[in-house]
Amino acid sequence: MKENKYDDPDFFRRYSEMPRSTQGLEAAGEWPALEKLLPDMKGLRVLDLGCGYGWHCRYTADHGAAEVVGVDLSEKMLERARADTHQPQVRYVRSAIEDIDFPADSFDLALSSLAFHYVVLFDQAIGKVASCLRPGGKFVFSIEHPIFTAQGTQDWYRGPDGETLHWPVDHYFREDERSSVFLGATVTKHHKTMTSIVNTVLDHGFRLDRLVEPTPPERLADHPDMVNEFRRPMMLLLAATKM
């Protein structure tokens, strides 16, 4: 089942109030690390999977991409992305990631930000990416870290006064659905081990170039929402090249 909470009006409203939604890439703690993994954009054909508001689409267009296609399942996300996008080389397509069907060699770069943990058919999705990238094309994505998704509830164990004690990790090797509460709603994510994530990419003909477990940038180190992000990995970034 392809979950799409973002078209629920209440959920979308709450999402729209998050710093990532109002401030863009600069409010994303992992962005400095992800940006370093991206190639020179000049003249590239770019595919953004799970594009949301289109922040990465506009970034790649502003840095010289010749063509940018943003894909998202949420019509509300795409409506906002279209309204905020004025670069003529950017267009948006409504589709689940695992359902994309672009011709072979359509893109030079595929990127995705925090979307693959919602994908049920991860192997199929990575295969679709491989099929539409040219040989030598780059694939850069972020996903919630397996340590972050493993236990399911995605919350700290807390002491009697609400203090954060430690992050629980359990059932790590059981790859299946995990339910957690995000913005007041129950959402379903699909836990995979580090081994599965990396080997699926390799099995579809990619060479792994870089793997990063980012921490927030120093300028956000004292932000109350970021203090605990130095205690366990929340995200995993991968950069790969299609062979």
Provide a compact summary of the structure.
The protein has 243 residues and is of the alpha/beta class. 26% of the residues lie in helices and 28% in strands.
Would you give an account of this structure?
With 243 residues, this protein is an alpha/beta fold. It starts with 8 loop residues before the first helix and ends with a strand. Strand 1 (45-49), helix 4 (55-62) and strand 2 (67-72) form a beta-alpha-beta unit. The chain has helices at residues 9-16, 19-23, 31-37, 55-62, 75-84, 122-132, 146-149, 194-203; strands spanning 45-49, 67-72, 90-94, 107-113, 133-144, 157-158, 164-166, 177-182, 185-190, 206-212, 235-242. The longest helix is centred in the middle third of the chain and has 11 residues, at 122-132. The model has no long low-confidence stretch (mean pLDDT 93). The chain contains eight helices and eleven strands.
Could you list some keywords that capture this structure?
single chain; 243 residues; alpha/beta; 7-stranded mixed β-sheet; two-stranded antiparallel sheet; 8 helices
The N- and C-terminal alpha carbons lie at a distance of 32 Å
> How many β-strand runs?
11
Please state the average pLDDT score. 93
Q: How much helix is in the residues?
A: 25-40%
Largest sheet: 7 strands, mixed
Order of helices and strands: HHHEHEHEEHEHEEEEHEE
Number of helical stretches of at least 4 residues: 8
Spatially, the strands of the biggest sheet line up as 3-2-1-4-5-11-10
